[in-house]
Write a structure and sequence with these properties.
The protein is of the alpha+beta class and 341 residues long. It has eight helices and 14 strands. The two termini are 38 Å apart.
Length: 341
């Protein structure tokens, strides 16, 4: 987890580049939900491109006195390119709009969550919004979750290609790909039900994914909510018989959807990152999905400009320049379900 947090990213008015800009830019990038919680693999020193490599084909044989490579299962090295896109943040914030909130926080004394310096508070405010945008683009950049298209009005973000963009691009090579008609539902028995999609993905995934102790299931938070409702309804049916109206909220017991429920399915952990698109399921090892940025290079910049004493405008401008991009390592080591209509 990053050492750079909103709470300790203290930046005054001025222009910063490279190492000097890192505390602020890092707070904006590495605080995105998926990155902060290590839900995917992250490379912080990518300048334009990086090669992601996968070794395969290790074999074991009876011991001999000579070196004999495994003829039927030779070690191979495959690679794929992660390309980052140059990004910028140009934000102008009216000091008046934020000052009342900041001053109110200061009244909390030692319990204040806001920094003592107002300029730093504005910078952290913009950084938090930037982290939200990074999270959305990381998963759904140039991807429409309503039909799995890579263009169109329903795109979640368009700053760079997200992981689901690359997954759809590689659909012919996916280990398992279920194309689903219609949005996911909480109906445990319907073909559109979240339980049906999860079962299909896990049951039909390649054996290398099923046997991977580190494999996880990625869902949106809405899909996780539907899953909990579906499991609650199924549990009641098993105990009391089929409810008279399974579509009614009364058919679901809150006993089965509390915080104590483990976030697993068939023994595999469930990850519900805030940026995961609705109506999608991804089953793979986190080492198969990457986010790259140039945070550890000298190519990042940040500027904090309070114009009140310069032009008389009571505004603060926040400027950042960095890069970001995603890539999947091996589509054959992934199993997915996605809405296509």
């Amino acid at each position: 987890m990053s050492l750079y947090k909103f709470a300790n990213a203290s930046i005054g008015v001025g222009n910063y580049a490279g190492e000097a800009a890192r505390p602020y830019v890092a707070a904006a990038i590495l605080s995105a939900d998926t990155i902060a919680n290590n839900y995917v693999s992250v490379m912080q020193n990518v300048h334009s491109q990086a090669q992601l490599r996968k070794f395969s084909g290790v074999s074991i044989a009876a011991q001999t006195c000579t070196f004999t490579p495994g003829a039927s299962n030779e070690l191979t090295l495959e690679s794929v390119t992660l390309t980052t896109s140059p990004l910028q943040v140009n934000e102008q914030v009216c000091n008046k709009d934020l000052r009342a909130t900041w001053e109110g926080m200061q009244m909390n004394g030692q319990n204040s969550p806001a920094p003592a310096d107002f300029t730093t508070y504005v910078a952290q405010y913009v950084a938090a919004k930037t982290a939200e945008a990074i999270e959305i683009n990381l998963w759904g950049g140039n991807f429409d979750p309503t039909d799995s298209s890579l263009t169109g009005g329903g795109i979640l973000g368009s700053s760079f290609d997200g992981l689901w963009h690359h997954i759809v691009d590689a659909q012919a090579s996916l280990g398992y790909d279920a194309e689903v008609a219609g949005a996911f539902t909480a109906d445990a028995d319907a073909t559109t039900g979240i339980l049906t999609h999860l079962q299909d993905v896990v049951n039909n995934a390649p054996s290398e994914i099923q046997s991977d102790a580190n494999a996880v299931i990625y869902l949106s938070r809405k899909s996780l909510f539907l899953l909990q409702r579906a499991m609650a309804g199924t549990a009641i049916e098993n105990v009391y018989g089929t409810p008279s109206n399974t579509s009614s909220a009364a058919a679901y017991s809150p006993t089965f959807v509390g915080e104590a429920r483990p976030l697993t399915y068939m023994g595999f952990p469930i990850v519900a990152a805030s940026g995961c698109p609705n109506d999608t399921v991804l089953f793979c090892n986190p080492n198969m999905v990457y986010f790259g940025t140039d945070l550890l290079t000298d190519h990042i910049n940040a500027s904090i400009l309070n114009l009140r004493d310069v032009t008389g405008d009571d505004v603060t401008r926040v400027i950042m320049q960095f890069s970001g991009g995603t890539q999947i390592v091996d589509a054959g080591s992934m199993a997915v379900a996605r809405r296509t209509s």
